[in-house]
Amino acid sequence: MPTPPKTTHTQQMPHKRKRHDPKPIWAYREGEELPPELKQQQQEQRQQTRPPPLPVQAQAQPGSQAQPRPPPRPTPIVERNGHPPSETDASLQLPSGHELQGFERPVSDAPQVYNDVSHKVCVFVWDNAVANELVRTAIADPKVQLEVEARWGQIVERTTDRRIRGMWDNECVLKTENLDVKFESTMTVQQHKRMNLYLNSQVQMSQAPGAARPAIGYQHTYETDIFYELDQQGFSSLNPIVQRLIGQTGGRQRVRLTRDKNTGEVLRAIIKHRIANLEISSPNTEWDYRIGINLEIEFPGPIESLQLAVEPGKTAESMQRQKDRMSYSWLGAYQVDLTQVTQGASKNHELELELDAGVLVREAHKARRKEVSKFESLVNGMMNNLRVLSREITGPGA
Q1: What is the pTM of this model?
Q2: Phi/psi at 112 (nearest 5 deg)?
Q3: Positions of the region Disordered (predicted)?
């Protein structure tokens, strides 16, 4: 690992919001008193969630023979996942989600009640990506990109090499720093095939003529990853803020060079630096989740000056990763990658969801300025997608 520049003191990455940085509206609990400016924002959000009145000419008259349009018949998949596509797709249209009506309305008459797990993820993303001054400063450099991704996999005990089980019986955030566990992002060949068929069917339905849902884009790519050791000279060429972030965590850093497998064209050369992870156990489905916040740092120097990374017992060729990836994107905010990774004699299947960092940062800045923001809706949408795909693989009656 290159030696970071010496400093008189070590600045720790902030993990908590500074006192002068006001809480966004979604961070308040039900019944907690809001400051005047946030009360005004909440009132604006309520007005936006109410449907506009029908034009006079469109209102039904007494005795009219017009029949209401029948709702679309849900498919077994929709019923299994627990919510039709229209509700998921609308998550970005409503600033604070679905306004509660009827029996759902609590005694406090709050228009929404947050989901505790999703709220915890909101706070995690906010503290580590939005309120983290070093991260905010780093991503001001166009060569440094924020990555917020979620992976499907299993939280495994290191001692038994089995998926962790406990006294909990439903989805919850784990304090894994107190546990001897690891996260394995993998799936079986059969699960990979089933997920491929399911996602392809969603693309077809979304792009069908007259479909009342946002279209899902599809892309199939073949790439090769080659790894190089980051030396002192390469480390010194990085942004000083990036050097500080890397120096705080220590450890070995590598540069990942990605080429198009068919043309040999260099697509990118980056250093992926981890900021924080959050593990969520989902014992009622086949998979748990890991929410990761990372920086993808474009390597500015010549790649030829670096030494190939070769681990003991491996060759340079066996260190290469061949990626056969199918990507599904929608709403300009989410992308699901279904990837088959071959490295040497091993083959792994992975499923991950990436939240568009540009959209996330933009909505976070709105929240910091006390404007109407969809920050919480973006994170809630990410969690909904994790749950839907997990339930699709798990199936009914599991």
Answers
A1: 0.75
A2: -140, 155
A3: 1-93
